[in-house]
Amino acid sequence: MTGTVRRAGAFAAVGTLAVAVPAATGFRSLELATVAAIAPFVLVAALGVTVIGQDSRLFDLFARPGDYEDGKLYGLAAFSLAAAGLALLAVRFSLPVPMFVGVVVIVAYGNLGQRLAYTVRSDEVVATAGFVLVGFVAGVAGQVLGTRIQAAVGEGAAAVDLPLVLFLAASGAFVAALLRSVLFERDDPLVMLTVGLLLWLFFELDPSVTARRVVIALAVTVLLGYLSYALDTASLPGMLTGVLLSFLTIVLGGFGWFAMLITFFGLGGLSTKYRYDEKLDRGIAEENEGARGSGNVLANSIVALFAVVAAAASPSHIAVDPLLFFYAFAGAVAAAMTDTFSSEFGGLYDNPRLITTLRPVEPGTDGGVTWQGVAAGAAGAGIIAGIAALTQDISTVGSGVILLCGLVGMTVDSLLGATVEGSVVGNQGVNMLATLAAALTGAGVVLTAGLL
Fold it and tell me: What is the mean pLDDT of the chain?
C-alpha cells in the first residue's frame, strides 16, 4: 500500500467520525448536542497542530507535503475544522444531519477511491471514476446510516427517502470530483464546505425526483461524459462540468431539457473539431486541440443551469410559472449553440466585417462576422428550437421565440466582442452575457406575449 493510499485511508477514518453527529442530536440540551457533535473534529484538529510531533508515525500517516515544512498537521486540522463547521450547521441550524454525514464521507472516501484507482491504473479518468464511484456509495451509505442513527435516538424519521438520497449523493460526488480536478489536495476543506452548502440548497428545493430518473441520469451522463473526453471534445474538468450540468438537467428539468443541452454539447464539440488544422493555421482554433475546459463549459451553460434550478424551485419557492424558466433555459442553450456555430463555421471564411462598422477585418477578430457564420448560427438556433418543439408541449410561436433568443444571443456576443471584449471582459464573460441576454429575451417575450 502506497503512502498516498494510507494517508487517504487515515483521512477517511477521520471522516467516519461524522456518524457520531446523528447520535449527538439525541442530547436534550442543545448546548450539549453542539459540543458532542463538534468535539471529535476539534480534538483531532488540536492533536494535529499541538501534540502529534514530526517524528511520530501518526505524523507520517497524515502529513501532506506542505506539512513537513511547518512540522504541523495543518492539512488534518483544516479538514477536521471544516467538518466541525458543517456539524455546527447541522446541529444548530437546518442543515440535515444525515446529509452532513453524506457530505463528509463523500469527500473523505472519494479521495480514498481516487488513490486506490491510481494504484490500478495511472490515468486521470480512471482515478476520477474511482473518486465518483466510491464517493457516491459512501454518500448513500452515510445518509442512510445517519438517518437510522438519528431515528434510534428519537430525533428523526426512520424512513429513508431513497430517490433524494441517491440524487444528493450523486450531485455531491460530481461536484466534489469537479472541484478536486481544479484544486489541490490541501483544498479539501473548501471542497467539503462547498459541497455541503450546495447540497443544502438542493435539499431545500425539495425536488420531486424518482430513483428511476436518477439512475437513468447517472447512466446517460456518465457515458456521454466519457465519450466527450475520449473524443477530446472536453478536458477532464470540462467533462466533469458537462456531466454535472447534464445530470442536474435530467433530474430537475427532464429529458426534453437534456436533449437540448446534450445537442449543444455534442454538436458544439464536433464543430470545434471541424477542419481544426485549418482553423489552427488561421489562428482561430480553440486551445488544447479543441478540448473545452470547465470555464468554457460553465460560461456557455451557467445561465441554463440557473434556469433549471429556478424551475425546480417554482412555484413552491418562487411564485413564477416554471414555463417561464423553460424559455429562459432554451433561449440560453440556443444562444450558446448560435455563438459556437457562427464562430466555428464562420471563421473558416474570408472577408469578415466588424459588426459595429461593417469594415473588413482579419479572420478571428472579435466582433467580426461573415454571412456564412450568421447562417450557421441561425441553423444552430433552429436545431435547438426544433428539439424543443419535438420534446415539449409548446406552440409554433414558442419555437419561434427560442429561435429569436438564439439570434439575439449571437448578436449580443458579436457586439460585445467588438466593443468590450479584451478590455473589460474576457471571452468567457462575453459568452455568459450573451446567453444571459438570450434567456432574458425568452422570458420577456413569453411574458409580454402571454404565452404562459
Answer: 88
